Amino acid sequence: MKEFSYERPESLEEALQVLGANGSEAEILAGGTDLVIAMRDRYAQPKVVVDIKHIAEFSPSLTWDGDTVTLSPTATMSEVVADEGINTHFPALAEAAVVVGSVQIRNRATLLGNICNGSPAADTAPPLLAYDATIVVAGSEGTRKIPIDDFIVGPGRTDLREGEIAIAIELAVPPRLVGSAYERMTRRRGTDLASVTLCATVDDAGVTQVAYGSVGPRAWLKTDETGVLADPAASSEAKAAVYEEMFVDASPSVRSMRASPDYRRAMLRVLGARAVGRATERLQKLQGVS
Amino acid sequence: MSETVHIEATVNGRDRAFEVAANHTLLDVLRDQLGLTGTKECCVVGECGACTVVVDGIPMNSCLMLAVEIDGRDVTTVEGLAADGHLNALQQAFLDVSAPQCGFCIPGQLMSAHALLQRNADPTIDDVHEALGGNLCRCAGYLQITEAVMVAAEAGRQ
Question: Which chain B residues contact residue A105 at CB under 8 A?
Fold first, then answer.
């Protein structure tokens, strides 16, 4: 690892000063599960590493206020998995967080870091897209709130500008009843990057959302307002046509070692049906239908 | 010359104050600076778990942490399991069921298992598989490793 200086700000203001003064020479350290590897492999060579785990404003890492949960940059995957409210209201996010890496990784890796790292295979991107998460970003000119669909840009890229720091993810419990589920495809159970990630939500008005990743430069969110996917009586041909349209943005890389493009496209349809099926079952439970 | 940072941490029950280079990982410092070579370096990308240590009761990959990050925290390595020259129940169980084959992954397996048993004295086999899922054994001695953790848990409950 190349040499760098280590900064450990204790307030957001102090962190913004350090980031402002160092621009692109600074890297933010939260869980470090991506950054430390990048620095060891020398594709990140910061002059300054800014450890944000001691910033007073980021504690506690997970706060519920009425129907909204706010997760700070220090909220780890393990904390997400352990939170009762998230399991109740955002079960697909808990399902995605619990399959990231291993126990050791989940104890360090943060939810916000998973998004800011910008991996197309980020497990938590599809559920956060489907739950319409908001990313809060702070900079020298104040804070801005960005819908996650606009925040995610492409491989390793987000809407975060130089000198800015993402300070929170906000999730609001939707006003309608919503069932949701997360599915992923990996080569083996246990520590592996996903070949396909997919989250489905089905609400009580028959609207189905499908967010999918690891099959192109970023995760995409698609909506079916026709009610076909949510309708258990709809024919598989009718559903296949809707899925076909939803998965139009899938452009799996031919160079990936994890899975071939054909396999990934085929598995999108399988995971889509599985996730929509489980989401529908969850919705029916919420509706009290046995 | 890299920046050095003064840190204070408890390592295997002993309070220590020392200087670490900002760009050294916890794994580097444990092995090369503190002489605690029980913690192994293997994949260095967080996939194999050979470098697992327990920080404030939580298992982590020491290859993915900067050493400065343990400032003010409590670190247990495999050397911290035995007391007064005697193996603890978990280590003894690993020996009794012949869980170690080549032995290289065992310190990491022990630390993940130790952290599990600290918070769950009565784990199911699925709990053990989940807790040790981030520790690879290329001799593939998983059956015996799982058995050892279950034996140690049983012994701990008596």
Answer: 46, 61, 64, 134
Looking at residue A137, the DSSP 8-state letter turns out to be E
Q: Is B25 on the interface with A (CB under 8 A)?
A: yes
CB hemisphere CA count around B13 (13 angstroms):
7
Question: What does DSSP say about strands A152-154 and B52-55: parallel, antiparallel, or unpaired?
Answer: unpaired
The residues near A65 (Cβ < 8 Å, ≥ 6 apart) are none
- The reported pLDDT for the residue numbered B1 is 47
- A vs B, Cβ pairs < 8 A, gives 90
- Contact residues for A70 (Cβ-Cβ < 8 A; gap 6+): A62, A63, A168, A169, A170
Average pLDDT, chain B: 96
Smallest Cβ–Cβ distance between A32 and the set B21, B52, B65 belongs to B65
The terminus-to-terminus CA distance of chain B in angstroms comes to: 54
Convert A163-201 to b/e letters by CB count within 10 Å (16 or more is b).
bbbbbbbbbeeeeebbbbbbbbbbeeebbbbbbbbbbbb
Question: Is B66 part of the contact surface with chain A (CB cutoff 8 Å)?
Answer: yes
pTM score, two decimals?
A: 0.96
pLDDT at residue number B100: 96
Which long-range contacts does B85-93 make (Cβ < 8 Å, 24+ apart)? B89/B152, B89/B155, B89/B156, B90/B114, B90/B117, B90/B148, B90/B149, B90/B152, B92/B152, B93/B148, B93/B149, B93/B151, B93/B152, B93/B155
> Of all residues in chain B, what percent carry a pLDDT higher than 90?
95
A160-178 tens-digit pLDDT:
999 999 999 999 999 999 9
Q: Please, which residues 100-139 of chain B have a Cβ atom closer than 8 Å to chain A?
A: 112, 130-131, 133-135
Task: Kindly indicate the confidence band of residue A51, based on its pLDDT and cuts at 50, 70 and 90.
Answer: very high
pLDDT, position B134: 95
Residue B85, min C-alpha distance to chain A (Å): 28
Chain A CB contacts of B68 below 8 Å = 6, 8, 51
